[in-house]
Amino acid sequence: MLRDFILGSVKIHILYHASEEPVYGTALMQELARHGYHIGPGTLYPTLHTLEDDGLLQSVRKTVAGRVRRYYTITSKGHKALEEARHAVRELMHEILKETHHE
């Protein structure tokens, strides 16, 4: 269950960063590691491809320093999914982190 939650969190992070600016794999791995998500290319790239197949991201290929790099940006469907995720995360945090008052 925790692995599924973490993968969901990674997807939300990806959508968020792709909504801020075009992102690519290596930079995303570094950014995710900064947040404590140490995932390798064997997890990240299939996740990016799934998000793209689901219509949440779109990609373009650009040549950078002689290498082809794939940049991902969020789609309108991705923006909607990100807003729904924000709402769900807010609700979850409110529920599980609320303090109990003992008298």
The count of DSSP E runs of length 2 or more, i.e. the number of strands, is 2
**What strand line-up does the widest sheet have?**
1-2
User: What are the low-pLDDT stretches, counting only 5+ consecutive residues below 50?
Assistant: none
- N/C terminus separation: 34 Å
Which percent band covers the strand fraction? 15-25%
Give a description of the structure.
- The chain is an alpha+beta fold.
- It contains 4 helices and 2 strands.
- It has helices at 2-20, 25-34, 41-53, 76-97, and strands at residues 57-64, 67-74.
- A two-stranded antiparallel sheet has the order 1-2.
- The chain is globular and about 55 Å long.
- The termini are far apart.
Task: Quickly list its features.
alpha+beta, 103 residues, 4 helices, two-stranded antiparallel sheet, Arc Repressor Mutant, subunit A
Layout of strands and helices, then pairs:
Blueprint: H1 2-20, H2 25-34, H3 41-53, E1 57-64, E2 67-74, H4 76-97
Antiparallel strand pairs: 1-2
Helix pairs in contact: 1-4, 2-3
Task: Give a brief rundown of this model.
The protein has 103 residues and is α+β, with helices and mostly antiparallel strands.
